[in-house]
Design a protein that fits this description.
The protein starts with a helix and ends with a helix. It has one domain: Beta Barrel (Small Protein B, Chain: A). The protein is an alpha+beta fold. The protein contains five helices and nine strands; from the N terminus they run αβαβαβββββαββα. It is globular.
Length: 168
């Protein structure tokens, strides 16, 4: 019976490793109110895959555009791989193509036609052995909206802490 439990634990650990977060854009959730999210594939070269798996991706200044019917990722910095020569390495800020269905791209185009909406990369994660990018349609927040969101988050945190202390 102990062996079966060890196998289940190992399988759970493997699933957790197969679905781990590689890079996160925490600033995006502060700057934008995310209305809708979409998980897309991303077209990468070999050294980019190795760098992302090592956690060398920065999504902070990234944004997505729809050009010629394709969804493109701009201004995301993926550091060059340390163990590759300069000839084989990639350009850190190159434009990358995102892989999504035509129906999804058309839906995003409809969102972009509305004033004040943008497509922002939220995180890069592993899904099995595939590297996936989660993008979100966001509306920019004003300063007073950011303050209100921070106040609400702090009040929820306070309530949670009080309930936790009462439960002890």
């Amino acid at each position: 019976m102990a062996k079966g439990g060890a196998k289940k634990a190992a399988a759970a650990a493997a699933r957790a490793a197969a679905n781990r977060m590689l890079a996160d854009n925490r600033q995006a959730r502060h700057q934008y109110e995310i209305l809708e999210t979409l998980e897309t594939g991303i077209e990468l070269v070999g050294t980019e895959v190795k760098s992302i798996r090592n956690g060398k991706a920065n999504l902070r200044d990234g944004f997505c555009l729809i050009r010629n019917g394709e969804l493109q990722l701009h201004n995301v910095h993926i550091s060059p791989h340390s163990h590759a020569g300069s000839y084989f390495n990639h350009d850190p800020l190159r434009t990358r193509r995102l892989l999504a269905h035509r129906r999804e791209i058309d839906k995003l185009r409809g969102h972009l036609d509305q004033k004040g909406l943008a497509i922002i990369p939220l995180n890069i994660h592993l899904k099995g052995s595939w590297i996936k990018l989660t993008i979100g349609v966001g509306k920019g927040r004003k300063l007073h909206d950011k303050r209100a969101a921070e106040k609400e988050k702090q009040s929820k945190r306070d309530v949670r802490n009080i309930l936790k202390s009462l439960g002890r």
